[in-house]
């Protein structure tokens, strides 16, 4: 592959169309991605995992501290919240592939401290990592995509996405070529969900439950949104 230093992961994807449609080949290639500066401080690339035939793709923001250390998505506290909500919503874990919009952990350290504090990826970092997310979606061709939080929503539906406006609604997933662009935002207003091959449901990130004062109420909202996705699978 023709890798080079840039704000774009595209040069790091496999050259072969066959490999680009193979999740294991994509995961292997992503391990060497230098498409943005986040790799410099992260422990490793954290690529998506789950069923290659999964009908549901869950998209989060980025790996957290535990995910970065272990190399697997959603293995920290937010992952445990998500696992519980999926079970209660009736979404079989074997039907799920889970990934993040950005594949490296972005963080800062407090002065003199060792604790790594999460920082949201910026627009350039999201754009740089977009080719990996597109490749995953093309390889999987899911029935439903769930956007977990604002960053995932913007990575899929464009910068105008707002969780408060769109959460819990069954929407048509935009054409993959437009994912994350302003055109994606226009498409969701123009395409009825019933006419789409793939639908998308937006909700909060599970970590929002952990930060909430009223965890039960916030968790109930997450669960209700996931039930919309579960219903779309029937």
TrEMBL record:
<feature type="domain" description="Uracil-DNA glycosylase-like">
    <location>
        <begin position="47"/>
        <end position="227"/>
    </location>
</feature>
<keyword id="KW-0234">DNA repair</keyword>
<dbReference type="InterPro" id="IPR036895">
    <property type="entry name" value="Uracil-DNA_glycosylase-like_sf"/>
</dbReference>
<protein>
    <recommendedName>
        <fullName>Type-4 uracil-DNA glycosylase</fullName>
    </recommendedName>
</protein>
<dbReference type="InterPro" id="IPR051536">
    <property type="entry name" value="UDG_Type-4/5"/>
</dbReference>
<feature type="region of interest" description="Disordered">
    <location>
        <begin position="1"/>
        <end position="20"/>
    </location>
</feature>
<dbReference type="InterPro" id="IPR005273">
    <property type="entry name" value="Ura-DNA_glyco_family4"/>
</dbReference>
<comment type="similarity">
    <text>Belongs to the uracil-DNA glycosylase (UDG) superfamily. Type 4 (UDGa) family.</text>
</comment>
<dbReference type="InterPro" id="IPR005122">
    <property type="entry name" value="Uracil-DNA_glycosylase-like"/>
</dbReference>
<dbReference type="Pfam" id="PF03167">
    <property type="entry name" value="UDG"/>
</dbReference>
<keyword id="KW-0479">Metal-binding</keyword>
<keyword id="KW-0411">Iron-sulfur</keyword>
<keyword id="KW-0408">Iron</keyword>
<keyword id="KW-0004">4Fe-4S</keyword>
<keyword id="KW-0378">Hydrolase</keyword>
<keyword id="KW-0227">DNA damage</keyword>
């Amino acid at each position: 592959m023709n890798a080079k230093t840039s704000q774009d992961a595209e040069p790091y994807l496999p050259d072969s169309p066959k490999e680009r449609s193979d999740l294991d080949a994509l995961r292997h290639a992503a391990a060497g991605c230098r498409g943005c500066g986040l790799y410099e401080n992260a422990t490793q690339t954290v690529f998506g995992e789950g069923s290659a035939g999964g009908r549901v793709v869950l998209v989060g923001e980025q790996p957290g501290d535990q995910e970065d250390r272990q190399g697997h998505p959603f293995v920290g506290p937010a992952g445990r919240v998500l696992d519980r909500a999926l079970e209660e919503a009736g979404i079989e874990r074997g039907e799920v592939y889970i990934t993040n919009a950005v594949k490296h952990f972005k963080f800062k350290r407090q002065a003199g401290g060792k604790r790594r504090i999460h920082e949201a990826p910026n627009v350039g970092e999201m754009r740089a990592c977009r080719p990996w997310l597109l490749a995953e979606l093309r390889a999987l061709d899911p029935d439903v995509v769930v956007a977990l939080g604002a960053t995932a929503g913007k990575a899929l539906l464009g910068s105008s996405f707002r969780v408060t406006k769109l959460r819990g609604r069954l929407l048509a997933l935009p054409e993959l070529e437009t994912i994350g662009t302003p055109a994606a935002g226009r498409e969701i207003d123009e395409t009825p969900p019933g006419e789409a091959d793939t639908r998308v449901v937006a909700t909060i990130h599970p970590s929002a439950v952990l930060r909430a004062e009223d965890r039960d109420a916030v968790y109930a909202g997450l669960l209700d949104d996931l039930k919309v996705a579960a219903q779309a699978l029937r």
